[in-house]
């Protein structure tokens, strides 16, 4: 997540929530397209199109909102490279999970990422995590295990059906790691730079696989591949803008609307309906994630109040 905090002149909660819901739809449409394309095209080729054509709307957006040179200026190339490597690894794993799993299941497993962020923030950023959030994380991980349970039985293991689940949970860890690195970058880097360098590096990583089994697309397939990138770029813009118009604590829970879109698209495109265990686990993970967001908002308000009070004390 690389959204910026809204300034007073831009506060519009309804618009912020609407943009967030639209971003969730764009990303879910992109995921469904990737799942369709993964039947024909290798992962490296999908990464290239996902990243290269995402640059089209992103650069257009940067040109409108800021000069591109200012937007992408950086003093931390190593930090961007680390974020890009982690993110690219997560992209490979996530795309692989989509190839093996029903769309709804792959999306639901991804909900583990915000919970993993809490753990990594405590370990790597030395953030204070109190009992309430640890309890929510624990419940969330129980939900993840419930979602994974159909893939962890001896029969599923023997048939290789657990491969997609392993890819999915590893992708969630990478997403969480990328989020931690983004938090570090936001201390000195602009939003445009964080988005641009990640997209540019993953484009090059995808292009580097061109001699490893790329498939010549038909005109229709080429349009779908380009659409994957365009949807990704539009989704990123909508996501970033949503945090400009409303507080993160209000906007973030609407990320879970991806489950609605994924269920509908999974049913209409692939004839797949989520298993009961996936639904039950997703409910637990979603509830835990929303509680974590609520606690972070409450703690943020308390810290802001303490800062304001300390600034008013006579020096």
TrEMBL record:
Its main location: membrane. The keyword Signal does not apply. It comes from Salinarimonas ramus. Keywords: Membrane, Transmembrane, Transmembrane helix. GO terms for cellular component: membrane. It is found in: Membrane. PANTHER family: ACYL-MALONYL CONDENSING ENZYME-RELATED, SOLUTE CARRIER FAMILY 35 MEMBER G1. Belongs to the drug/metabolite transporter (DMT) superfamily. 10 TMS drug/metabolite exporter (DME) (TC 2.A.7.3) family. The chain crosses the membrane at residues 12-34, 46-69, 81-101, 107-125, 132-149, 161-182, 194-215, 221-239, 251-270, 276-294. This is Permease. The keyword ATP-binding does not apply. Pfam families: EamA. It is a multi-pass membrane protein. Residues 15-148, 164-292 form the EamA domain.
């Amino acid at each position: 997540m690389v959204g910026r905090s809204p300034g007073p002149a831009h506060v519009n909660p309804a618009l912020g929530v609407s943009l967030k819901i639209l971003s969730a739809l764009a990303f879910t449409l992109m995921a469904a397209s990737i799942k369709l394309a993964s039947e024909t095209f290798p992962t490296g080729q999908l990464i290239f199109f996902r990243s290269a054509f995402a640059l089209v709307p992103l650069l257009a957006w940067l040109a409108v909102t800021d000069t591109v040179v200012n937007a992408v200026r950086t003093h931390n190339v190593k930090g961007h490279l680390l974020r890009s490597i982690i993110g690219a690894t997560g992209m490979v794993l996530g795309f692989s999970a989509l190839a093996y799993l029903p769309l709804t299941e792959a999306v639901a497993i991804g909900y583990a990422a915000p919970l993993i962020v809490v753990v990594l923030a405590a370990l790597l950023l030395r953030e204070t995590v109190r009992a309430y959030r640890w309890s929510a994380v624990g419940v969330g991980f129980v939900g993840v295990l419930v979602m994974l349970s159909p893939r962890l039985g001896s029969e599923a293991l023997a048939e290789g059906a657990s491969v997609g689940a392993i890819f999915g949970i590893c992708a969630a860890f990478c997403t969480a790691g990328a989020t931690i690195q983004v938090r570090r970058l936001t201390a000195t880097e602009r939003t445009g730079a964080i988005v641009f360098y990640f997209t540019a590096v993953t484009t090059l990583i995808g292009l580097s696989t061109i001699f490893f089994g790329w498939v010549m697309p038909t005109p229709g397939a080429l349009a779908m591949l380009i659409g994957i990138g365009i949807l990704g770029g539009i989704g990123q813009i909508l996501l970033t803008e949503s945090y400009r118009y409303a507080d993160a604590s209000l906007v973030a829970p609407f990320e879970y609307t991806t489950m609605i879109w994924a269920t509908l698209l999974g049913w209409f495109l692939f004839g797949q309906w989520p298993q009961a265990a996936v639904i039950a686990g997703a409910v637990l993970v979603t509830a835990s994630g929303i509680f974590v967001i609520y606690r972070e908002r409450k703690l943020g308000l308390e810290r802001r109040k303490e800062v304001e009070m300390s600034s008013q004390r006579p020096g």
